[in-house]
């Protein structure tokens, strides 16, 4: 049976991964009309519509979704085989990871990976939202996505949220709570969730999705509500809410990988409960590549680092409220 026009397959994969003809054209360094022509040529050859067009984005049809996996896998295998023949494969691994996880947890630990596995070169690709898993984007992913056809994954961290503030702000809080008769010690072992609404709260929409929703959900776990008079400052990302907390502007919610109190004496984890978000960070990789040396070394190292740093892994027993 004759093959489809081979030059159209990388174009199809790029459009499917990026969800856009214009973005695919930019990545492939061709015109948008050339991309449209290639897709039409491929669809005519197959006798099937691969995309639904509408607005600025395109969506795969059911036939397109079925076609994407073998095409993406085949292109990646050709790419790796070519690298091996050129003598430049086997030591580089592209890892796609959320920017906050990379900046606050992964990058500080990379020297240990380089020391243990000097032959392995990891190139980081920053993610701003959960990606479509594809070997054309990266060899491995740290993602919160669940099962994906053709991919396996290892659990790294079950996310939980808890409040933090600067040490100066904490001291001021304790003075205020003591004057209000709510505590009788300089360093309380526990404070009530409702007491936090007396102070400015720093909200990050990247945690849950809507401004203020992170605090609404966290307080609801203790049957509390946000009062109408609450002082709340909104940020698009947890990193910015962290920076505001560091500069004594209020109380922010964070998770385990964003802060290590032992290495950050200027910040205080408030003695309150913790709330699980239901998001589980996992290392995802192509199942057919699980025994490749680079993937195997990265899997083992990430698991060891997650355990050593105290991240909560799948199956651990912990008191956690699910959202």
Descriptors:
alpha/beta, 3 domains, 323 residues, Arc Repressor Mutant, subunit A, D-Maltodextrin-Binding Protein, domain 2, disordered C terminus, 11 helices, 10-stranded mixed beta sheet
- Class per helix and strand makeup: alpha/beta
Strand-residue proportion: 15-25%
Number of strands: 12
Q: How does the overall form come out from the CA principal axes?
A: elongated
Helical coverage, percent range: 25-40%
Q: How many structurally independent domains?
A: 3
- Could you give me the name of the CATH homologous superfamily of the largest domain? Periplasmic binding protein-like II
Mean pLDDT: 86
Per the CATH scheme, the topology name of the largest domain is D-Maltodextrin-Binding Protein, domain 2
Going by CATH, the architecture of the largest domain would be: 3-Layer(aba) Sandwich
- The Cα radius of gyration reads 24 Å
CATH class of the largest domain: Alpha Beta
Q: Compute the number of helices.
A: 11
Q: List the secondary-structure elements in sequence, H or E.
A: HHHEEHEHHEEEHEHHEHEEEHE
Regions with little confidence, pLDDT below 50 for 5+ residues: 314-323
What is the terminal-to-terminal distance?
52 Å
Major sheet attributes: 10 strands, mixed
Describe this structure in words.
It is a single chain. Strand 1 and strand 2 (57-60) form a beta hairpin. This protein has three domains: 6-83, Orthogonal Bundle (Arc Repressor Mutant, subunit A); 86-157 and 279-316, Periplasmic binding protein-like II (D-Maltodextrin-Binding Protein, domain 2); 159-277, D-Maltodextrin-Binding Protein, domain 2 (3-Layer(aba) Sandwich), CATH 3.40.190.10. It is elongated, with a radius of gyration of 24 Å. Helices cover 38% and strands 22% of the residues. It is built from eleven helices and twelve strands. Helix 1 (9-18) crosses helix 2, helix 1 (9-18) packs across helix 3 and helix 1 (9-18) packs across helix 4.
């Amino acid at each position: 049976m004759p093959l489809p026009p081979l030059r159209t397959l990388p174009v199809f994969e790029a459009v499917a991964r990026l969800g856009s003809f214009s973005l695919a054209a930019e990545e492939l360094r061709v015109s948008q009309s050339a991309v449209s022509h290639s897709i039409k040529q491929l669809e005519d050859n197959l006798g099937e519509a691969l995309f639904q067009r509408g607005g600025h984005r395109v969506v795969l049809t059911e036939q397109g979704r079925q076609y994407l996996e073998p095409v993406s896998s085949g292109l990646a295998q050709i790419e790796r085989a070519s690298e091996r023949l050129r003598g430049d494969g086997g030591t580089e691994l592209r890892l796609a990871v959320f920017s906050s996880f990379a900046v606050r947890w992964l990058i500080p630990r990379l020297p240990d990976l380089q020391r243990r596995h000097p032959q392995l070169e990891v190139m980081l690709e920053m993610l701003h939202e959960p990606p479509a898993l594809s070997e054309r984007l990266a060899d491995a992913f740290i993602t919160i996505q669940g099962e994906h056809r053709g991919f396996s994954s290892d659990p790294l961290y079950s996310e939980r949220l808890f409040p933090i503030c600067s040490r100066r702000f904490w001291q001021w809080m304790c003075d205020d709570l003591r004057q209000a008769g709510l505590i009788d010690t300089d360093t309380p072992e526990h404070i009530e969730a409702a007491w936090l609404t007396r102070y400015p709260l720093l909200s990050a929409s990247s945690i849950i999705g809507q401004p203020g929703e992170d605090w609404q959900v966290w307080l609801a776990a203790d049957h509390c509500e946000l009062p109408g008079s609450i002082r709340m400052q909104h940020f698009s990302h947890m990193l910015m809410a962290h920076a505001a907390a560091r500069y004594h502007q209020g109380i922010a919610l964070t998770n385990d990988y964003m802060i290590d109190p032992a290495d950050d004496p200027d910040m205080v984890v408030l003695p309150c409960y913790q709330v699980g978000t239901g998001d589980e960070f996992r290392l995802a990789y192509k199942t057919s590549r699980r025994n490749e040396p680079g993937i195997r070394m990265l899997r083992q190292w990430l698991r060891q680092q997650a355990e050593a740093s105290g991240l909560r892994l799948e199956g651990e027993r912990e008191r956690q409220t699910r959202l």
